[in-house]
Amino acid sequence: MIGIETLDEFIIRKQDELPYTKGELSRLLRDIGLAAKVVNREVNKAGLVDILGTTGAINVQGEEVKKLDVYANTRFIAALKLGGQCSGIASEETKDIIVFDDEISKNAKYIVAIDPLDGSSNIDVNVSVGTIFSIYRQVSSMGPPTLQDFLQKGSEQVAAGYIVYGSSTMLVYTTGHGVNGFTLDPSIGEFCLSHPDMQTPKSGKIYSINQGYFVSFPEPVKQYIRYCKQEDKATNRPYSLRYIGSMVADIHRNLISGGIFIYPPTKEAPRGKLRLLYECNPISFIVEQAGGRASDGYKRILDIEPKELHQRTPIFIGSEEMVLKAEEFISDYPSA
Ligand code: P6P
Question: What is the pTM (predicted TM-score) of this model?
Answer without folding.
Answer: 0.94
